[in-house]
ParB family protein (Pseudocitrobacter cyperus), 494 residues
Amino acid sequence: MNNKLMSPELQPRLLQGNFDRKRSPDAQFTDPLTETAMIVTLEQLRPYDLNPRLIRNPSYDDIKASIRRRGLDTPPPITRRPDQEWYIIANGGNTRLSILNELWRETHDERFWRIHCLFKPWGGTSEQPAPGELRCLIGHLAENDLHGKLSFIERALGINKARELYQQMKACQLSQRELAEHLRNDGYPIHQSHISRMEQALEYLLPCIPEVLYAGMGRPQVEKLLSLRAAALQIWQRHATGDTGSFESLFSSALSPFNDQPEDFFIERVQDELLGLMSQALDIDYNLLLLDVDPSEQKRQAVLGPTPEPPPYIPPDEPEPRPVVRRRKPDEGEVRGGTVIPPPESLLDSSPPREGNEPITDIWPISPLFDSTETLQSVSDRLAWDLAECCGIEDCVIADNSDDGVGYRLSEFNPDHPMFSRPQSHACWALLAALTDIPLTEDLSAALTPALYIQRDAGGFFFGDLFLIKAFRLIRIVRRIRELQQEAHHDADN
């Protein structure tokens, strides 16, 4: 043995103890600055306290059975706030963590106690925690949407919390459009109109029916309830000189009693209760209020406007005779001053005004109560039928309420059709076809000329005033249908 190893100077060093065991490993080393694989135990893990999921995952039992048999195939990513002793779930995985704790208590199997995880650095600092909180919150929102669909109210609360964090970071208030832009840039695209409905639900519905919302009320029902509230508020403001404070109390009184039994919640019952209270408060007949919030009556007013009094046109006792060109035979003419004048080719301008299925007085406004693809497709179908009827080709219009349709489609306009020889019928078919994205042939394109909209030659054919009003309204409706379909496709892709 080497005598140097037994020297008095080396002996105390060889007998010296190991490193101080009283210091925890977490106190010695900082968290990794890049994504790093590590093993943690259940006692070191906590669920994310701002997780938007508040309701038990509907697939909880299936996920638990899978983890019991196979173990944890996809361990959740973890992170840690500055100066905090435990780790938290970075995005998704709170359900899996809860299941692991249950399985450990049931089995004490080591594979449920120690977990291989991917550590992700915290995005913020102790002085400015908002960036880290936002990163986790948006991660949980996206993960829950992919693997366990959130309810409408859970997503609304998550988006609202994200707004608070963004405003804390920016030190300013954010509009809905700005919030949508920030979320999209951070990997969670959502349309501004959806944010608007979520904020209305949090403000007007959540205080009254929390149990119903947490039971899983979906977006279509929420939108119908908000539309009912908007229609009732308009009536209240007309008759109560804008006393919206009393309306909020009345709306809450009508809605709150239905919170106790979510499974028996029906919007029709809420409407009945709300109109009953409004009838008593405003001293207005219940049936009159019902007419104002009834969907069919609202649709009529959205297109035609309020019914004017007195009527805009009162027929005289002895109306002056006027020619009815639509009833002439093709070879007949009109005698004026002993001269036979050939019948004008227009069947549109000389016919008496017809209201048809969709009477029109205003072209552009669309009521929010009926601003949906299905409702507008129905309006589009009736308008197309009215236009086609003016030219005798109504049999070519076929209702079409498919997801990508505009409300109608056209059958082929063949030479054997009785109105095929009429240029106005060709022009009308071409106009309706163009709105359904049917490619027009050269002949049909030539039939649809700008002169149809401005020509006033009595010997020629042109679009009449009522026809043009309905045509422009149809264009407006089809444009809005396409906008709603694009929004729906965008939401589906995300």
